[in-house]
Amino acid sequence: MIRKQIDRRTLLGGAASLAAAASLCNCGLGTSARAEDAEAVHPVLPALAPGAPTLVPVNLRLAGPDGTALDLSTLRGRPFILHLWATWCPPCRLELPALNMFLEKTGAEVPVIPVAVASPLPKVMMFLAQGHLPHIAPWTLTQHEFSQWFTSGEPSLPMTCVIDAQGRLRSRVEGEMAWNAPEARSAFEKILSGLQSSGPA
Hints:
Helix content is 31%, strand content 19%. The chain has helices at residues 15-27, 90-106, 121-130, 143-149, 184-198; strands spanning 3-5, 31-33, 61-63, 69-71, 80-85, 112-117, 139-141, 159-163, 169-174. α3 links the parallel β6 and β7 (139-141). The longest helix has 17 residues, at 90-106. The two termini are 30 Å apart.
């Protein structure tokens, strides 16, 4: 998969934004997976086929509008999909319309939690509104908080993770997923159903 450095010019907006960009680039999260052609889009299966658990159970606390919060530890007991993106990530912007359509069709039947990493909440909300993406929940997470959990190499965005019922990372794909593929819904349902029935690994 081709990788490229995020153009820091997309992060203009003051010294704070430039400092954040430098920090992200240093930790590896400042890179994004390119998705300029169909070969860069990953099918759901076998790309996300669950493997052995990795990392400690996800215990992230997400921030949302009006002071709302979502603690991912409260989701123990059922597997879910964690999708990480950023407003400054070009491939993420390409992928989000397909994810928005997927979420519109599946709702809670296929639990997907989108999280904007290192993206200020006001900017995330404006971005989603201007992009007409009403089904993408504006959950956000700081780069520091994400790095505290994700200690397995240097990720690139977008990134889609399969989290099992015990909160453990079971598989991940860096780059665009084929959310608009005809078999996407059944593929995700199969993955999550398998994890639900398998119990602790």
